[in-house]
């Protein structure tokens, strides 16, 4: 797995590099201490761990957008000291696939990294508990018109599926999802386009659209950002990791 760690503190980058390589011996880590340098790095990268603030280069919100544009196939996870849940939600909306707090203790940080390396989605508890103001119909239409999440919106009719059992447990939606729907959902939550998902899973693009649409409907989400938080709240890991562990793991 090729990973890029982007933070203006060299010592922090080297510490993260050591932790990642210890978790995964096949990890190939590169370091960038400026956003400009990271944007110029030659990809592709599988994973990018990105700090929020780079003085004089950009604000944190536009930084994740610029990184996603420069490295379209990478999963971008914010690794920051931010503690404002509304800011975490905004970063997810702009293209991050997860958020790990630098304020976490070592065990929490390791658990977050393991979840991410397994292909799962991680968001800390303080952001999961925050409920943003609901988006109005006009705001939703405006977002679609601007192209936000357009690749995952109204992507064609989903195939028929059994309605979920009348079960109020938090994990009930998982039983209504097929393994392939979960695979596509996680990759969509990581910011990957239907075209990239289709290429990586060796599927037709229309098939990916069908799976993503079905998964979004089952989970009751409309956008990639909503999918990230729903996947994190359900502790979703890729199907292979779930089978190996016997059950979903908490990702928070």
Summary?
48% of the residues lie in helices and 10% in strands. The protein has 13 helices and five strands.
List the topology elements.
Elements lengths: L1 E5 L3 H14 L4 E5 L2 H6 L6 E4 L9 H11 L4 E6 L4 H10 L3 E4 L4 H12 L7 H4 L8 H9 L26 H5 L2 H11 L4 H8 L3 H15 L4 H10 L5 H7 L7
Helix pairs in contact: 4-12, 9-11, 9-12, 10-11
Largest sheet: 5 strands, parallel
Distance between the termini: 23 Å
Calculate the mean pLDDT score and round it. 80
Task: Give Rg in angstroms.
Answer: 18 Å
**Uncertain runs with pLDDT below 50, 5 residues or more?**
153-166, 243-250
Structural class: alpha/beta
What is the ordering of alpha helices and beta strands?
Answer: EHEHEHEHEHHHHHHHHH
Please, how many helices? 13
Helical residue percent?
40-55%
| Tertiary shape | globular
Strand segment tally: 5
Strand content: 5-15%
Kindly report the spatial arrangement of strands forming the biggest sheet: 2-1-3-4-5
Notes on the protein architecture:
- The protein has 252 residues and is α/β, with parallel strands linked by helices.
- It contains 13 helices and five strands.
- The chain has helices at residues 10-23, 35-40, 60-70, 85-94, 106-117, 125-128, 137-145, 172-176, 179-189, 194-201, 205-219, 224-233, 239-245, and strands at 2-6, 28-32, 47-50, 75-80, 98-101.
- A five-stranded parallel beta sheet has the order 2-1-3-4-5, with helices on both faces.
- Helix 4 crosses helix 12, helix 9 crosses helix 11 and helix 9 (179-189) crosses helix 12.
- The longest helix has 15 residues, at 205-219.
- The chain is globular.
- Residues 153-166 and 243-250 have low confidence and may be disordered.
